[in-house]
Structure formats: C-alpha cells, structure tokens
Amino acid sequence: MVYLTINNKKIAAEEGMTILEAAKHNNIHIPNFCYLEGVHQAGACRICVVEVEGAKTLQASCMTQVQEGMVVHTNTERVKKARKVLFELLLSDHPQNCLSCSRNQSCEFQKLGELIQIDEFRFQGEKSKTAVDNSSPSITRDLSKCILCRRCVTVCNQIQGVGILNTQRRGFRTVIGPAENLPLNSVNCVFCGQCTTVCPVGALQEKDSLQEVWKAIHNKNTRVIVQTAPAVRAALGEEFGYEPGTLVTGKMVSALRDIGFDHVFDTNFAADLTIIEEGNEFLTRVRDAFNGKGAVLPLITSCSPGWIKYIEHVFPDEIGHLSTCKSPHMMMGALVKSYYAEKIGVDPKDMFVVSVMPCTAKKFEITRPEMRNGGYPNVDAVLTTRELARMIKDAGIDFTELEDSGFDNPLGLSTGAGDIFAATGGVMEAAIRTVYEVVTGREMPFEKLHIKPLVGLSQIKTADILIENPVDEYRFLDGVTLKVAVTSGLKGAKILMEQVQRGESPYHFIEIMGCPGGCISGGGQPRPVNDLIRQKRLEAIYAEDEGKEIRKSHENPFIIRLYEEYLEKPLGHKSHELLHTHYTKRGMSIEKIG
Predict the structure, then answer these.
(1) Fewest CB atoms within 10 Å of the CB: 201, 246, 549, 571?
(2) Structural domain boundaries in the chain
(3) Active site residue 303
(4) Is 362 a catalytic residue?
(5) Overall pTM > 0.85
C-alpha cells in the first residue's frame, strides 16, 4: 500500500493506482471527462488536473500514479481556474445547440459544465470541424460535436480490435475517423456501435429511425408490427430511473401498445425457432462429419450482424463455418410477412415490421439484399433501446406508472432458452439444452439447466459435453465429448477464428457475439456500460429464464404448432426459404456497402 494525503485527508491506496482512482476509492470526487474506467486512460482533456506539492505543473490525475507521502490538492484556486479555462476552450470549438441535440440532458459535457459552474463563454472563433457523416445505415458521425476525447479510438482498437477509428491530422485540424477521412460505409466498420456507447457527447450515435416508424404508425392503411429483443427488457428501465438489471418486460409491452403498434411480438419466440433450426443444422453437420462426408466444423453461430460483417471482412474464406440461420429478428420478420400475414388475411405490402434491438448493427442487417422474401424486406426498421426510450417519452407516456401486459400470440410465447440469447454464452446454452435432449432422450444434467463454464463475462469460455448412452439414431456419438467455445467482443472472435483458419480449432460448435458481454451491452443499449452494469443485466436475464415454466426451445407449444401448420419440418424447404440465408466475402479492401 501507498499512503498519501488528498485535500488534507490521509488515505491509503494500492501501489500503481492513479490519483484519480485513489480519490474515487476514498469518496473524493475529481471532475474528469475523457477518462473511462476500464476502457480509456489517455489524459487528453486535462479536466482532471490536480495540484501536487513539489510538482511545477498541474498533473492529470487520471495518468499520475500515487507515491508514498504525496500531498494532493484537488480544489485550489489554481486548479479551479485551469479547469474552467480548459472547459471553455473545449466549448469554444463545440456547437452550442444543446436543446436540439439528442444527447440533451444525457450529455457528459453538459453535466461537466454544470459541475464546474461555467457561467460565461469568453472564447469565440473558428470551429475546427463541421462535417457530418451519414453514409452508414447504423451510425451517424457529427464531427462538429467531437471533443477529441479518443474514447472511441480506444474501444475500436483496443476493445474490439477493428481499428477503423483513429486520430487523423494534427493540431487544430485534428479529427477522429477512418484514414483519408473516408466515410464509414466505405471502410471495414462492422457497425457494432460500441463507439456510440462511450462517446460522451452527440458526435457518435445510432442512425435515427424514429420519424420513419412514427410515419408508419400514423398511416391508417399500414399494419405496424413490433418485436423486442431479450436484452431490451433488462436495460430499458435505466432510461426511466430504474436500477440496472431491472426487468421491465410487462411495462415495455404496455408502452408499445400505447404508442400505437398494432401487434407486439417477442423476438424470443424466434430465438426458440433459431435453436430448432440451428440445432438440427449442427446435428446434421456432426453426422456428416462422422460419416466422412466432409461437413464443415466447427459450426459458428450467426445471430450477431456485427460479427457476421467482421468475418466477411477479416476471415472471408471461413464463411462456410457460419450457421446459415438468419438472426432471430429476421426470422420473425420473415414469418410475420408470410405465416402471420396469411393467418390474419393482410397483404405483406401493407405490413411494416419494427425490431427494437440492443444493437446498431441490426440497422445495417435489414438493408442486406439477402434479408428479403417475396420481394419485401423481412424487417422495415430497427430502433435501439435508446430510441425506444425517446419514443416513449415523446408519446407522453409515464413509463413507471404503466401496468404490466403480455405479448401477443402466436408469435409472443417464448421459453427461458430464448431469454438467455441476450447474454454471452446464452445461445450456446440454449442450443445444448435442446441438442443434448434430442441426442440422449434425457434432460441436460446441469444445475438449473445452466452450463456454468459458459456463464459470465470472461472473454473466451469453453465447455466439454460428454455424450453417453444416446438414442439409437445418434449411437455414433456414444462416448464422444462435444467441445464448445463462446466469446463476446471481436478481439475474442479473432483469437478463435485464427485457430479455425490454421486448422487447429478443437471445437465442434462456437458462439460468437459482436459486443463484449453479448447483447446486454450492445451498441444501442443505455449508457453508461461497464462490467458492473453488464453483470446486473446478465443476472436479470438469467432470472427471467429461471422464472419461466418452459425453459427449452423444443417444448414451446407455438413453435411445435408452427411446424405442424406451416414449416412442416426443421431444415425443410419452407424453413430454408424463410429462415436461412447466405453471406458475402468482402475482404479487407475498401468497398461501398450497397
């Protein structure tokens, strides 16, 4: 331990801690801006400066490590003047249109100004950046609002390992963006949106789809259907003052009805459907592999559109490992405009399907030409969790006072297996719950149906599943240990894919999610996101699963009925037509997304 004094208070701190961290652990608040715990530590803004006795200049507390006997002052006249000047300089290069900004009242820059008591704007002059990049279907870059904190650079390079955002040029001409100032849609951006979750201002945010959705709702000739992803229900409440991890499923459904959606379905239903299709695809590949038919293993999940775009760019020759299943919300959209349209007698051209997702990459996914059936897009618009919150507020709905209500059927009933799609490891666990029972005729022998090695926020998780005494159809698997792996975040994906690329992967089945922690911390989820918040959301999702009467996808009665009435059988002709797809080799070259 190191012993020091901050503001005349003697404290102890672990060796290697910064002054900012030591202060925080001792309930001493130092204003800061560019720093983001566990993500970004660069000392770029200098707002966190403090006075250290014996030092000639003010020190950035987020970068300066504690030392034995150090004496620190955080609120001297010199420090307070420096902070105000630094803030005013940042503000002088920032548009002051807060009322019309989507980050109004949720902007860290705005809150910082209030904290350090800014009451005048002394510096005026030329603005360094004015461009807006609207080229991407998922993310908008407003360079005029960028304050060069470089959080997005750290996330893109160090956390995700994609590396398309970097500091370009120097001095007053400095910008953050792709090389050569290229637009996002012409580089290898995967549209994961992790940059939008750490941006403290409105410089990076999801592409707004609210007006498009409101227009559809107000069109009396359009039947508007909405579906909600499992991760949304564990995070939406944060936008209305609830603690992270508070499940607000019933209130969310009521709010969607009050907004004016005609039908409210649960993407979890399609998650159950994904397990049936993907589980059968996995067993088919395993059977073919054991029969020497050259099946491609490991099978890799394809629910995350950010991950799909990543493999298309970085590992295009390994696309054959991907499951051909569409992601659950695309399956749901295809069913709504076919099965459900026939059921209620509505022409698909008069339907407008909206997906509420924790993800910005889903906005790109719905523009893919592969995601169409019968001449119509499977899904017409995607709203992020943050956008839905704005929509609820815009509609004048008092969210906290809403009564709970349930989803509409037949596409609204889901099992606990569908719920856990929200968390890293959840897709794999849901698949094994069904696959193990199909192969052995017995329920999976794990406590509460959870495969503990696959639960949690570790970057890469693995498990071995021993098959003993299978049913006759799968006798060839007797004594075989199925090896599975799970990762979330694209850095982990790269590690597993390099094994596959070298032909050294020991796994039969791999789950990859594009965002760290999975969909619970997707690019469209409420801010802030850190491991504590991820853990609370994860616990909420598993609680939702454990509270369900039915927790295995193959036992969903409406899934069973769907096959009897419409799809006939898993991997059948109708299923392939509606629920499966193919992907594109993009490579690392710069290219324009059509």
Answers:
(1) 549
(2) 2-115, 132-206, 219-269+329-401, 272-326+414-520+547-579
(3) yes
(4) yes
(5) yes
